[in-house]
């Protein structure tokens, strides 16, 4: 009797301890393969690269395609190398291999959850560690994987980036978790000059004027342009901010509704694809995520998307030429030493703001689709600033 009781207690203790034994640390994508084979297979297809008319994931060389960039980004890493983004599979290797200098280990924030784990364990100082040394000391790192959006609970959105959860304090509305999962990385950010901490500039709002006001107030500058002397800002990849307030956003759609349609078959069920790429590549995906509302054929809808993108692209090219002309004229006037102190300060401020607005549209990966209204507004805003600047310069023309 006694023995039996002991055995029972022993068994219970054993059951309890194994039941509670949650695996610590990051469970890797490969380890979920057996449980979620369809999702894992779609996740592995992020290695595929394919071009679309305006987008796609073939790493074209932006500096070759848009030579004006060498002038705009003069004096900054992006004038040395700038390739188009490709899939999540490459995020970690691409940041390691880029020819651009890295501010600190915090450049890994949006490439791997392994960095976040060390950051949370060892504290904010980790941001400042030397990038190359951190990479050499952490060979276990893997690129964006299940943990980044789910932690160790596949299917549930669990945010892992505190730079996002901190910034959400400034946002009043409730945002769909299937958008927040992506807003962990597809956002505008800057790194604090001293601590190298990643910060999202949302305190005053998520449009360019609010961000510029925030940057002004907090004295944020990414670099000084070598020929105009302007304190410049580099826009990053503001997909979330651009999408915010668009037609589709206001209808309640999330990033995942268009980029993760339910097209992966598991018996009779359909699961969300985990191949994050251009929705225009898959007719099956378009049928699922767009045609339900829009009707018509997928070809017609692709043409509609491309019309919207072409409108933004054409204006972006024109404003790019105007910005180049402005920078060249400002540079010449500075070389001539003719500008008054006030005018020079104002012209530099115009360079800063106009270039940020132009860049915000240029670097946004939806190529104008996510929110064509906002893209046109930003380009128009850049254009009127440039015109204001040209007027000041014309005073010195005679
Ligand atoms: C209403 C549908 C829709 C929503 C919602 C949406 N997107 Fe997109 N996204 C698109 C389309 C269409 C493109 C253009 C693809 C192209 O040009 O090939 C695109 C392009 C992109 C690209 C570039 C892909 C490429 O291959 O060129 C990225 C990155 C992206 N979206 C991220 C996001 C993020 C992050 C969100 C949420 C903040 C989001 N999208 C919300 C439809 C959507
Ligand atoms: C942990 C950071 C992170 C998260 C979270 C994240 N992305 Fe990305 N994403 C990236 C990075 C970095 C790249 C660029 C990779 C490269 O080129 O090296 C990228 C590239 C992309 C691309 C371009 C690839 C292509 O084929 O066009 C798309 C589309 C995309 N992401 C969509 C999404 C969507 C949708 C979500 C949310 C469901 C999301 N991402 C969440 C970091 C992230
Ligand atoms: C970039 C973010 C992101 C990554 C990385 C990611 N997921 Fe997801 N996953 C999502 C989102 C968003 C949903 C939809 C959640 C919802 O409906 O609330 C989802 C849904 C799921 C579901 C539920 C099935 C369904 O159709 O909705 C499972 C299971 C899942 N993910 C497993 C995985 C596994 C396994 C991995 C790694 C191989 C992974 N996820 C990586 C964002 C991600
Ligand atoms: C919930 C319904 C809904 C879904 C889902 C949806 N749309 Fe829309 N979309 C609309 C409405 C409504 C408008 C505004 C009226 C119009 O232009 O047709 C719109 C507008 C557009 C526009 C014109 C945008 C502009 O800037 O002028 C394009 C292009 C478009 N959608 C493409 C897509 C694509 C591609 C998808 C899927 C990836 C999609 N939509 C998914 C409802 C939807």
TrEMBL record:
The UniProt entry, under InterPro entries, shows:
Cyt_c552, Multihaem_cyt_sf
Q: Where in the cell is it found?
A: Cell envelope
Does the keyword section mention Ion transport?
no
Q: Does the keyword Lyase apply?
A: no
- Chief location bin: other
What EC number(s) would the UniProt record show?
1.7.2.2
User: Which UniProt keywords are present, listed alphabetically?
Assistant: Calcium, Heme, Iron, Metal-binding, Oxidoreductase, Signal
Signal sequence: where? 1-22
Q: Which reaction does it catalyse?
A: 6 Fe(III)-[cytochrome c] + NH4(+) + 2 H2O = 6 Fe(II)-[cytochrome c] + nitrite + 8 H(+)
Protein family (similarity comment): Belongs to the cytochrome c-552 family.
Q: Indicate what this protein is called per its UniProt record.
A: nitrite reductase (cytochrome; ammonia-forming)
């Amino acid at each position: 009797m006694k023995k039996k009781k002991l055995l029972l207690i022993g068994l219970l203790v054993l059951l309890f301890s194994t039941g509670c034994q949650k695996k610590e640390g990051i469970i890797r994508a490969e380890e979920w393969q057996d449980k979620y084979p369809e999702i894992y297979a779609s996740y592995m297809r992020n290695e595929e690269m394919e071009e679309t008319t305006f987008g796609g994931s073939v790493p074209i060389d932006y500096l070759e395609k848009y030579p004006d960039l060498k002038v705009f980004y003069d004096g900054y890493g992006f004038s040395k190398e700038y390739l188009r983004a490709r899939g999540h599979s490459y995020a970690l290797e691409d940041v390691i291999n880029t020819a651009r200098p890295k501010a600190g280990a915090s450049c890994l924030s949006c490439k791997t959850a392994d960095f976040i784990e060390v950051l949370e364990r060892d504290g904010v100082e980790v941001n400042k560690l030397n990038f190359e040394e951190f990479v050499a000391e952490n060979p276990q790192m893997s690129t964006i994987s299940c943990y980044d959006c789910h932690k160790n609970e596949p299917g549930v959105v669990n945010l892992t980036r505190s730079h996002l959860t901190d910034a959400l304090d400034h946002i009043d509305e409730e945002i769909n978790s299937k958008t927040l999962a992506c807003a962990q990385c597809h956002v505008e950010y800057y790194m604090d000059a001293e601590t190298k901490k990643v910060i999202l500039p949302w305190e005053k709002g998520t449009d360019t004027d609010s961000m510029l006001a925030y940057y002004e107030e907090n004295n944020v500058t990414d670099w000084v342009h070598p020929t105009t002397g302007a304190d410049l800002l580099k826009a990053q990849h503001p997909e979330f901010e651009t999408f915010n307030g668009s037609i589709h956003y206001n209808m309640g759609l999330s990033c995942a509704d268009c980029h993760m349609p339910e097209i992966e078959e598991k018996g009779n069920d359909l699961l969300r694809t985990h191949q994050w790429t251009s929705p225009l590549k898959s007719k099956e995906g378009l049928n699922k995520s767009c045609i339900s509302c829009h009707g018509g054929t997928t070809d017609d809808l692709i043409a509609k998307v491309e019309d919207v993108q072409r409108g933004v692209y054409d204006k972006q090219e024109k404003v790019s030429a105007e910005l180049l002309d402005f920078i060249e004229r400002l540079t010449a006037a500075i070389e001539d030493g003719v500008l008054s102190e006030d005018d020079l300060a104002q012209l530099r401020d115009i360079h800063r703001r106009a270039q940020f607005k132009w860049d915000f549209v240029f670097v946004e990966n939806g190529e104008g689709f996510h929110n064509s209204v906002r893209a046109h507004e930003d380009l128009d805003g850049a254009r009127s600033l440039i015109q204001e600047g040209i007027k000041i310069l014309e005073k010195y023309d005679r």
